[in-house]
Design goal:
The protein has about 190 residues and is mainly α. The protein folds into 2 domains: about 40 residues, no CATH class; about 110 residues, AhpD-like, CATH 1.20.1290.10. The protein is about 60% helix and about 0% strand. α7 packs across α8. The radius of gyration is 17 Å and the shape is globular. The two termini are about 25 Å apart.
Length: about 190
């Protein structure tokens, strides 16, 4: 089994232990990113607050939309930990195998008719914001602002940015998948 580049500290401050306990209770896993962040308590606390404030979705449609966005950003960033974690909701949120192939860049989006317009725009937004540099055309912004409220756009942008943060952190520390998902996804997004 692949291991991170560094080991977690042997002694963890009490406040951070409480955070690790909450993370484990929420996810059912002893999260290696959280453990490694305890080397630098400010980063651990800031990352914990970021994760607590990340959009969860108010209804099934929004939960599915956020799952699609998180998964697309994870795939663009090629973060195996993020892909694993964000693949958990695939079946529950009705994401089909054909839709997954689109997210992985293995099938043309035009060939799958199950995505709603808002989902297509959100997926494109995740691709744009997860690429370097982001490529947001005037036409895309026009379509995005027509279909989403200001609040929804901020929710999408912050969710995508959060996945990108975790992807870079996990890759920078060599964190492997944690076994969240049984769903078969390719962890290396070779497009």
């Amino acid at each position: 089994m692949k291991k991170p580049f560094i080991n977690p500290p042997k002694r963890i401050p009490f406040l951070l232990k409480m955070g690790l306990y909450i993370a484990k209770k929420e996810t059912g896993k002893d999260l290696m990113p959280a453990r490694l962040l305890t080397w630098y308590p400010r980063a651990a606390i800031g990352s914990g607050v970021l994760e607590l404030m990340t959009a969860k979705g108010k209804d099934n449609q929004e939960i599915r939309l956020l799952n699609l966005v998180r998964l697309q950003a994870s795939l663009i960033c090629s973060c195996s930990f993020c892909i694993d974690m964000n693949a958990v909701g695939i079946v529950k949120n009705g994401i089909t195998d054909e839709e997954l192939l689109v997210l992985q860049g293995k099938r043309a989006v035009q060939s799958v008719h199950t995505f709603e317009l808002r989902e297509l725009l959100a997926i494109e937004y995740a691709i744009c914001l997860s690429s370097t540099p982001p490529d947001l055309t005037e036409k895309f912004i026009e379509n995005l602002t027509r279909e989403f409220t200001e609040k929804e756009i901020v929710m999408l942008a912050s969710t995508i940015a959060s996945v990108n943060y975790w992807a870079r952190l996990n890759q920078g520390l060599g964190i492997p998948p944690a076994g969240f998902s049984d769903h078969c996804l390719v962890y290396n997004n070779n497009k």
